[in-house]
Amino acid sequence: MKVLVIGANGQIGQQVVHLLQESDEYTVRAMVRNEAQATVLQDSGVEAVIANLEGSIDEIATAMQGCDAVIFSAGSGGHTGPDKTLLVDLDGAVKSMEAAEKIGVHRYVMVSAIQAHNRESWANSPIKPYMVAKHFADKALMASNLNYTIVRPGALTNDAGTGHISASENLQRDSIPREDVAHTLIAVLNEENTYRRSFDLVAGDTAISDALKNL
Fold this sequence. Notes:
Layout: E1 2-6, H1 11-22, E2 27-32, H2 35-43, E3 47-50, H3 57-64, E4 69-72, H4 82-103, E5 107-111, H5 128-143, E6 147-153, E7 155-157, E8 164-168, E9 175-177, H6 178-187, E10 197-203, E11 206-207, H7 208-213
């Protein structure tokens, strides 16, 4: 299975790319925004393609051509305003879904945010525009024809991964290492129990593979 990682230069995306590169089961193509990012990836032996989520659906579809699955881990970042959140985290995400449908890439894994499905949980959040974008991007994905999995991680840390998580439809806000998120994103690719499902994800006591099978 060849996997396109959208947002490959992000902190989670970089880890996903590395894990896929080391895998015997998957191959990876990294989608990034500029030549400098692509060069760094290519120098490390990773196939890289340049495309912009603020560009056209056709541009994204061209980057996706020949892949079997998409992992969307892109984001506008914490230093941009609501306008970029709208353009990248919502519209860019939806355009990538439309691109996948257009060329027949059916498997799609989305990195969302914990409790994005529950409006009441972020009614007074300081990052409400981001949560709104995630909420409606997720709804668009669920309404699509894609074989989706939506992973909603809690607060992200740079702690070393443990290989153990808690995964459920509804979880209290907690943290999780980015490394464990990356491993989970890859683990769901062929885990049929996660097909057309969404779940919150935080650090826990259950091995990743077992947690996903027990959803």
